[in-house]
Design brief:
about 375 residues; alpha+beta; six-stranded antiparallel beta sheet; single chain; nine-stranded mixed beta sheet
Length: about 375
């Protein structure tokens, strides 16, 4: 049954200067049901918004929509379970099946939507130019894993930034994935998208995963992404969903994320009980690892951070990102200035950090989490 919860949000909202909050609705996604039936309960709440998104950006742009559909067609069928969920969503919503299937490539295609400098360094491959009109925009997202040195507890804070905000902010919910009547894991979701974005698997050695867009770090990156898409490689978010379902603990999750084939570059920000790792993924390898408590580039030992750029490799594109409100002063830098001025990184401090001026952007979802304490504190800011 759909319900609204905001565990412990009241404590964090007492922080001065933080704007109004909205609770995130929760829905059970029962994995014992047929895939076609799993999302029927939540559709009435979101269907008009999804239709509005489709009509605004896709129904009248045949060139862009046909290109999107052709990429999806070249992929062939997705995993049978995923195909069942897509079919159920399309049938119940009356949206075109090809649209619902194509929108599953959202995160992979997001790697194209970069600051203007990138279009000269890493141009759109020929024949794909119409995808520059895809409405979801980046860069966005901030992830911080930090140790509260007064207690030793590790907390994980995240901003999910996604445009167009008027649509995306009204498509957010928490999915409680269950089997046999028990919660397997939970994830922040976007209605119509069957894959996970911000996940939380409870347990004494559980794990939380945040996905952040990572832009290609070499000239052929966009071409590689399209090759992987069109040759049917499993989508990143589906891979992560299966990791949440099947991996029992933090270490096995890290191993699985590190070794699974990806379609596109992406960051995986993974926290556990008194530990944390940020993996910068290339499609076939891990490009860089940040480990909480170790010697990381330009970070205190009690936190690790990532937005959307390889700052540890001096990616100049970060400084052309306007989403924090000021070109030349990236969201990461603004967040680190705040963190470095704080002696102890409590959950309240982390909540302030992700709401700090220059950090919060087109933010549609925020979380402060802790596997050790069971904290799943999620809300949406009123921008």
């Amino acid at each position: 049954m759909g319900r609204v919860t905001m565990v412990s949000v009241a404590v964090l909202v007492l922080v001065a200067g933080v704007q109004g909050r909205r609770a995130v609705k929760e829905f059970e996604i029962n994995l014992d049901k047929a895939p076609e039936e799993r999302y029927l309960e939540l559709l009435p709440m979101f269907n008009s918004t999804v239709w509005g998104f489709y009509n605004e950006y896709f129904a009248k742009d045949k060139e862009m929509t046909d290109l999107l559909y052709s990429i999806s067609d070249k992929r062939g069928d997705e995993d049978p379970e995923m195909m069942g969920e897509i079919k159920g969503l399309a049938d119940a919503s009356n949206l075109p099946f090809k649209f619902v299937k194509s929108i599953q490539m959202l995160y992979e295609l997001q790697t194209l939507m970069v600051p203007i400098i990138n279009f000269t360094q890493f141009p759109m491959p020929k024949g794909y130019e119409a995808l520059a009109r895809i409405p979801w925009r980046g860069p966005g997202c901030t992830g911080i894993i930090a140790k509260d040195t007064s207690t030793g507890i590790v907390y994980h804070a995240r901003d999910l930034d996604f445009s167009p905000v008027p649509f995306m902010t009204n498509l957010i919910y928490t999915g409680i994935f269950t089997k046999g009547g028990k919660e397997i894991f939970r994830s922040q979701m976007v209605a119509g998208y069957t894959q996970v974005i911000t996940t939380f698997k409870k347990g004494p050695n559980g794990f939380a995963i945040e996905r952040n867009t990572r832009y290609p770090d070499q000239v052929g990156g966009n071409t590689d992404m399209f090759h992987n898409l069109e040759h049917g490689r499993p989508l990143n978010g589906w891979t992560l969903r299966k990791i949440c379902e099947n991996q029992p603990d933090y270490e096995s999750a890290i191993t699985a994320i590190s070794t699974a084939p990806y379609v596109s570059t992406e960051y995986a920000i993974v926290s556990g009980v008194r530990k944390g790792t940020i993996l910068a993924r290339d499609p076939d390898s891990v490009a860089h690892v940040q480990t909480l408590g170790e010697d990381n580039f330009d970070e205190r030992s009690d936190y690790i951070i990532i937005t959307n750029f390889d700052f540890f490799f001096h990616d100049i594109r970060e400084y052309f990102d306007p989403t924090g409100g000021e070109v030349g002063h990236p969201r990461r830098v603004a967040a680190q200035e705040f963190l470095n001025a704080s002696a102890v990184l409590t959950p309240e401090v982390l909540f302030e950090a992700i709401n700090h001026k220059g950090v919060i952007a087109d933010t549609i979802f925020q979380a402060v989490m802790s596997i050790e304490t069971g904290l799943w504190n999620v809300s949406q800011p009123d921008l």
